[in-house]
């Protein structure tokens, strides 16, 4: 009888392996509990998602516009068996405080300052940084200020070169940098509508049916909060402070040579692949992947990105 039970158990396990329902821990991520937490930074509630062992290598996930740590909701548990994964929401985004523009100066310098204080408050001493969209100017500010804390970079549709912001999308935003008037600002309010949010998630994807409406269903109500459009316009203007810093960021890359993984949605109309290739000029230890998807590459290619990220960090 014992032999029969052993045989039956072996057959059952073999079946699970065959159909991909069970995998060896060294090969595939396991499910992990994700915690949803808040800390006070300069009187602001900063929300963050956290998972994985505290003593494991840390991956700091920095989100883009117009989303929040919500964009990493699937990546976090896919990494957390081997890594300590932390994803904060910036002020004005997600579940963090969103003071008015009169009560908080919405600049990328200030966002980076809040994230820097956040890392120190939650005890992150060394980390890899996942840079996406707005996460790039926030993360590069951190890296330049504290190069000793940065172990690796993961760049996903996050720009550090002029070549990536010379397309049609940026023309009205650049006009606002030159002429910060109500008239120029009003031209950008269309970027804050439901149609624009859906477009960011669906443009350039292979199959729109793979993109969950939960994405814009989460983002748009937050964009539609009272005074939030003014917050976003302030950051559109502040984005103009980033290109003058590109040479400094590029010098950081050349000097410190952080091992870097690029996983870039090549069909992105905001940060096209033209912004990915210049990293090759400055980095010697670079793993480079262009993915056949759009701006929010994790939505369609999250499994692929998790595999690439685990392989990269595993080295």
TrEMBL record:
EC identifiers of the protein: 3.8.1.5
InterPro entries the UniProt entry points to: AB_hydrolase_1 (IPR000073), AB_hydrolase_fold (IPR029058), Epox_hydrolase-like (IPR000639), Haloalkane_dehalogenase (IPR051340)
EC supergroup of this enzyme: hydrolase
Signal sequence coordinates: 1-25
UniProt superkingdom: Bacteria
GO molecular function (one): epoxide hydrolase activity
Keyword Signal listed: yes
Span of domain AB hydrolase-1: 57-301
Keywords, in A-Z order: Hydrolase, Signal
SUPFAM superfamilies given in the database record: alpha/beta-Hydrolases (SSF53474)
Official protein name in the record: Haloalkane dehalogenase
Organism: Thalassoglobus neptunius
Organism lineage: Bacteria, Pseudomonadati, Planctomycetota, Planctomycetia, Planctomycetales
Name of encoding gene: dhaA_2
């Amino acid at each position: 009888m014992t032999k029969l039970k052993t045989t039956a158990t072996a057959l059952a396990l073999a079946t699970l392996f065959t159909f991909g329902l069970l995998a060896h821990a060294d090969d595939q991520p396991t499910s992990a509990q994700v915690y949803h937490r808040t800390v006070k930074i300069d009187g602001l509630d900063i929300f963050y998602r956290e998972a994985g062992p505290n003593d494991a290598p840390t991956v700091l996930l920095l989100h883009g516009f117009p989303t929040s740590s919500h964009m990493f909701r699937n990546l976090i548990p896919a990494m957390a068996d081997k890594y300590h994964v932390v994803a904060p929401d910036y002020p004005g985004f997600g579940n963090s405080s969103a003071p008015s523009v009169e009560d908080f100066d919405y600049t990328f310098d200030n966002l980076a300052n809040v994230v820097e204080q956040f890392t120190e408050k939650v005890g992150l001493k060394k980390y890899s940084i996942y840079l996406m969209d707005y996460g790039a100017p926030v993360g590069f500010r951190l890296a330049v200020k504290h190069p000793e804390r940065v172990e690796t970079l993961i760049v996903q549709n996050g720009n550090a070169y002029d070549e990536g912001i010379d397309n049609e999308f940026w023309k009205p935003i650049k006009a606002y940098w030159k002429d910060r008037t109500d008239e120029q600002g009003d031209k950008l309010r269309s970027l804050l509508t439901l149609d624009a949010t859906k477009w960011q998630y669906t443009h350039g994807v292979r199959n729109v049916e793979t993109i969950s409406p939960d994405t814009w269903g989460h983002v748009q109500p937050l964009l539609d909060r009272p005074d939030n459009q003014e917050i976003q316009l302030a950051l559109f203007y502040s984005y103009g402070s980033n290109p003058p810093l590109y040479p400094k960021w590029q010098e950081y890359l050349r000097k410190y040579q952080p091992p870097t993984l690029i996983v870039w949605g090549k069909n992105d109309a905001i940060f096209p692949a033209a912004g990915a290739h210049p990293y090759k000029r400055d980095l010697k230890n670079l793993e480079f992947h262009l993915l056949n998807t759009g701006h929010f590459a994790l939505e369609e290619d999250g499994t692929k990105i998790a595999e690439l990220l685990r392989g990269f960090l595993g080295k």
